[in-house]
Write a structure and sequence with these properties.
There is one protein chain. The two termini are about 35 Å apart. This protein has one domain: Orthogonal Bundle (Arp2/3 complex 21 kDa subunit ARPC3). Helix content is about 70%, strand content about 5%. It has 7 helices and 2 strands; from the N terminus they run αβαβααααα. α3 packs across α7 and α4 packs antiparallel against α5. A two-stranded antiparallel ribbon has the order 1-2. It is globular, with a radius of gyration of 21 Å.
Length: about 220
């Protein structure tokens, strides 16, 4: 009887240790994800010509028409899980609204009037969904790419809903969002950057796959 009690107590302690380590791991990835998102906001994503062309043509870069911000959001979900991903983006949005000019065009409470703000809010469910799917299966490149794609779709869904809402509620006409220019804004924020963001998904999937293999999870 005493042995069973001791064994159960030992098992309970091990479980508690695992939970504590997991919580610290999530907190660490949330902090890393926050920093990556902030710095990624101001770094333009680009690709270079193939390495085998460098000798003949030299190396040159081509912009992807987007920043590394969304890549940072999705990478946090793939590496830290749903809680770390969502927490990092909640802190990012709150800091941008209340304290630091860390959004693409500044910050502050007035930023809720920006057409792109819905996409920033979408980072929260996008990172959560990406992290939730990424940790449902064993670490595989295709599953990580699928989770990042789902997270990206969630971001665009929230952004589009916000754009449509602004176009209907801008009765004073001072938000620069109306039913007339809604198609142009959708093209600017969702359609035009989508090819570049798909490239970022590929890059994020490879990085997450390698790091999770190295870190053994």
């Amino acid at each position: 009887m005493n042995r069973r009690t001791h064994a159960r107590k030992h098992l309970f302690q091990n479980r508690e240790l695992i939970i504590n380590v997991s919580g610290l791991n999530e907190l660490l990835w949330a902090l890393i994800g926050l920093l990556l998102t902030i710095f990624g906001t101001f770094i333009e994503a680009f690709i270079t010509n193939p390495p085998w062309d460098w000798a003949d043509r030299g190396m040159f870069s081509q912009s992807l028409g987007t920043t590394c911000q969304i890549g940072a959001v999705l990478l946090t979900g793939c590496l830290g899980g749903k809680n770390a991903g969502a927490l990092s983006q909640i802190v990012y949005v709150v800091l941008g609204l209340l304290w630091l000019p860390i959004f693409g065009r500044g910050g502050g409470l007035e930023y809720v009037r920006e057409p792109s703000f819905g996409y920033l809010v979408g980072f929260i469910p996008g990172a959560w969904l990406c992290g939730a799917i990424a940790f449902r299966h064993r670490t595989k490149l295709e599953s990580l790419a699928g989770s990042a794609l789902c997270g990206l779709l969630a971001i665009h869904f929230c952004g589009l809903i916000y754009l449509v809402g602004l176009s209907f509620f801008d009765s004073a006409g001072d938000l620069f969002v109306s039913l007339e220019n809604l198609p142009q804004l959708i093209n600017r924020y969702s359609i035009a950057p989508l090819p570049g963001q798909m490239v970022l998904i590929c890059v994020v999937s490879v990085i997450a796959f390698v790091l999770r293999r190295v870190l053994f999870y």
